Amino acid sequence: MFTHLKNIETAFQQNKKIVALVILSSAAVMIAAIWFAYHAYQQANARVYVMANGKVIEALAADRRENIPVEARDHIRMFHQYFFTLDPDEKVIDEHIGKALYLADESARNQYNGLKEKNFYNNVISGNISQQIQVDSIRLDMDQYPYHFTCYVLEKLIRSTSTIHKVLVTEGYLRNVGRSDNNPHGFLIEKWETVANRDTNINQP
Hints:
- InterPro entries: Conjug_transposon_TraK.
- By secondary structure, this protein is an alpha+beta fold.
- The chain has helices at 2-45, 64-84, 90-101, 106-117, 120-126; strands at 47-52, 55-60, 130-141, 147-158, 163-176, 187-203.
- A four-stranded antiparallel sheet has the order 3-4-5-6, covered by helices on one side. A two-stranded antiparallel sheet has the order 1-2.
- The longest helix is centred in the N-terminal third of the chain and has 44 residues, at 2-45.
- It is rod-shaped, with a radius of gyration of 32 Å.
């Protein structure tokens, strides 16, 4: 009888061990499944698809702090492209200036109003002048906020009779603002001014 009870007790202990092992194994499998699912979710979120020229391009998402200098320089470049790329067409000028003014504060609007009062844009239209620019380099100080920048631009004014090459230097500050369709980088140019704007040469046709 005692042997029978002892066998029952041994079997009961073995069952307890088996049940405990099953529970621990299930918990380990569940934790592993949760970890792999979370890892897969993080990888999926790191994939960004960008539409460019009708093609879908995969990009990798990253912490904004890693991209601040890149985004800041592109913001400055976009602003100068919009503000200074002109054609002898009032609608084109208004469209470009409108886009530029979303990227800067009233200092840019003041420069625009000053050029307008001097009939600069009317002269561009009446003289059939096209103005093209190329941003040569951008110096950006990320050690202090708002971020100070100096932008060096190569400018080309194309007339029917000549082409004028100029060097343009501007400076200002960048501060953070909310992103929007009109301001995708989330920066605003402040205290923007022209430091230098000089001719380099004139090419006759």
